[in-house]
Amino acid sequence: MASSDTGRWARPLVVVLGASGFVGSVVTAALADRPVRLRAVARRPSAVPTGCLADVEVRRADLTQSARLADAVEGADAVIHLVAGGVYGPGRGGEADAERVNVGVMASLLDAMRGRRRPGPPPAVLFAGAIHQVGVPPRTVLDGSEPDAPSDPFGRHKHAAERMLLDATAEGAVRGVSLRLPTLYGHSPATGALGGGALAVMIRRALADEPLTLWGDGTVRRDLLHVRDAAAAFLAALDHVGPLAGRHWLLGTGEGVPLERVFGCVAEIAAACRGGRPVPVRRVPPPPHAGPADLASVVVDASAFRGRTGWRPSVRLREGLEQTVMAAMRPARPAAK
Q1: Sign of CA dihedral 253, 259, 264, 269
Q2: Segment holding 59, helix H or strand E
Q3: Please, which residues bridge with residue 59 across strands?
Q4: Cα separation, 165 vs 78, whole angstroms
Q5: Are 109 and 102 in contact (CB under 8 A)?
Q6: In b/e form, how buried is each residue of 271-290, taking b as 16+ CB within 10 angstroms?
Q7: How confident is the model at residue 316, as a pLDDT?
Q8: What is the pLDDT of residue 94?
Q9: What angle do CA 39, 40, 41 make, to 5 degrees?
């Protein structure tokens, strides 16, 4: 990836938006080991490893403000857009705020890129999409060829942002790549965060010696991708923007694991770590707000992305769960100032 800077910093400038988040902090740490200029941007302080190879700049900014966003991506050769926000669900509100973050930030980013055309190839923009964009899966194994019919606000917002990116790519304003993420798990060594999904909740319950609850009969399967493998996928995409630009790509392990088995594994690992017997895993009826997509099994065939980049997941599920449970036992880290 060639740099637009011909001064003393003859290195490409990579900007990570959402660098303090669960995925963003892991991506930022991985990029810090590369010979790039790295600008880590987030609302909260971003943790960056010391003694790294990259030349690192950390910025705090409210990226929903278009002027602050435009300043954050000034001179970028590549932008990795990992900003996500909003709280979805009945009684939780925030859908309008979520759209302002999940759609509005992409719109402002592309406006900034359109206004700064330069010689050479357009800047690369890598976006964290979501498997949710397909809506209710038309079949268990997804490969990216399925028609999209997002069935919830999160999926619709992600889909709208992705369409904006791919349209801007067709215009020649950017080289856009959308990586659709499946269910992620793991922890961020930089921040200690476990992420905000159901699996993280169950890990905390198991360590607190509380029963784990499982919707339905336990046969629903999920393709669980470790956050470290997700970060590696973004770096692989950064290295292969040319053949990837202009479409979406699915990420996953290719293995769908029944959630009852996953939760049982969490209970066993937590018991070994804290002592005592594994907590029970109890089946409960799905709540009224659960939709068909919540109760559908999903397995991801990521062979298309793997064929273009050589990327493949490296973290085995048991290993990843053990590491995540151990991370959850450590004291919470004070927020960076």
Answers
A1: positive
A2: strand 55-60
A3: 41
A4: 14
A5: no
A6: beeeeeebbebeeeeeeeee
A7: 97
A8: 67
A9: 110
State the Cα–Cα distance between residues 155 and 135, nearest whole angstrom: 7
Residue 106's CB is within 10 A of a number of other CB atoms, namely 25
- The mean pLDDT value for 48-61 works out to 91
Show the DSSP H helices in 208-313 as ranges: 227-239, 241-244, 259-274, 303-309
Which residue is associated with the tokens 């268990």?
A: 140
Distance, in Å, from the CA atom of 14 to the CA atom of 134, rounded to the nearest integer, reads 29
State the pLDDT confidence band at 160, using cuts at 50, 70 and 90: very high
SS3 162: helix
CB burial of 139-164 (b: ≥16 within 10 Å; e: otherwise) equals eeebebeeebebbbbbbbbbbbbbbb
The pTM (predicted TM-score) of the whole model is 0.93
**What pLDDT band is residue 332 in, cutting at 50, 70 and 90?**
low
| Distance of alpha carbon 255 from alpha carbon 182, whole angstroms | 11
The pLDDT value given to residue 49: 80
- Amino acid identity of residue 150, one-letter, is P
CA distance linking residue 220 with residue 298, whole number of Å = 8
The tokens for 137 are: 């899966």
Distance, in Å, from the CA atom of 48 to the CA atom of 107, rounded to the nearest integer, reads: 28
Q: How far apart are CA 246 and CA 257, in angstroms?
A: 31
Which candidate, 105, 92, 82, places its Cα nearest to that of 29? 82
Q: What span, in angstroms and rounded, lies between the C-alpha atoms of 79 and 55?
A: 16
Residue 224 contacts residue 297 (beta carbons within 8 Å): no
Please give the DSSP secondary-structure letter assigned to residue 149.
Answer: B
Q: Which residue has the tokens 């397995």?
A: 299
The residues facing 17 across adjacent strands are: 41, 81
Long-range contacts of 230-233 (CB under 8 A, 24+ apart): 230/23, 230/26, 230/181, 230/184, 231/23, 231/26, 231/27, 231/29, 231/30, 232/30, 232/311, 232/314, 233/179, 233/305, 233/309, 233/311
* Bridge partners, 219 (sequence order): none
Give per-residue pLDDT as tens, 99-126: 999 999 999 999 999 987 777 899 999 9
